[in-house]
Write a structure and sequence with these properties.
about 220 residues, alpha+beta, two-stranded antiparallel sheet, 8 helices, about 10% strand
């Protein structure tokens, strides 16, 4: 017999209690937990710090590395359409973005974290406050510590390099192309690069930076 909605909710109680406990103990500053099936949302709750700012289930949160999965889908849409291939070297799409000393890298290398390129420190880039161009300049100065495809090395900002190279190749800015091809068709209207510009300021969740000792500092205004 299929489980009823109330039975599902009861079965999920330990997971939601864990999320609540993590917030109340200070392990995380807030948590939003949702469980859904093909039939829709089974349970969705938000947990904010006791006595702190209320967090709603519709809060707009920084996605961080989840953006890699979203970007990968956008890249594969272009591959499926025949616009690019995963094996083409991106060095030729936007030569000004790459270091001349690098061996050629492809979308496949970026998506599999095998470019061999070192990453850039995120906090230092954010504190500069000069945007993606500054980030790409710092990335271009990094060395290629291994031949492309030879080893896995998790890197974030080669994804910025990839999307800018694709934008140069297609003539369409990454942000607008992603919104048109992926976000709007999926109804992801609150997924954006600039929540304030979309009128979502009141829904922006607070940003906390984790310290090495496991504590959190308030949003440093990055």
């Amino acid at each position: 017999m299929p489980a009823t909605d109330s039975a599902r909710r009861r079965a999920l109680q330990p997971a939601f209690e864990l999320a609540r406990t993590q917030v109340e103990s200070g392990t995380v500053p807030f948590a939003i937990l949702g469980i859904a099936t093909a039939d829709g949302v089974v349970r969705l709750e938000a947990f904010g710090e006791p006595g702190g700012r209320r967090i709603g289930t519709d809060a707009v949160c920084q996605l961080a590395s989840i953006t890699k999965s979203i970007t990968a889908i956008g890249v594969l849409q272009l591959v499926e359409a025949g616009t690019i291939t995963l094996e083409q070297a991106i060095n030729g799409w936007a030569p000004a973005l790459v270091n001349d000393s690098w061996a050629p890298i492809t979308p496949w290398h970026v998506l599999t974290h095998t470019t061999g390129i070192d990453d850039v420190d995120l906090e230092s880039i954010l504190r500069h406050g000069q945007g993606r161009d500054d980030l790409l300049r710092h990335l271009r100065a990094k060395s290629q510590v291994a031949p492309p495809g030879s080893q896995f090395h998790y890197v974030s900002f080669t994804f910025d390099l990839l999307v800018e190279a694709i934008a140069a190749r297609t003539g369409q800015p990454y942000e607008s192309a992603l919104r048109r091809r992926l976000l709007r068709p999926l109804g992801m209207e609150a997924t954006t690069f600039d929540p304030a510009a979309e009128g979502l300021t009141d829904r922006i969740a607070p940003l906390a930076m984790a310290s090495p000792d496991g504590t959190f500092a308030d949003d440093p205004g990055l």
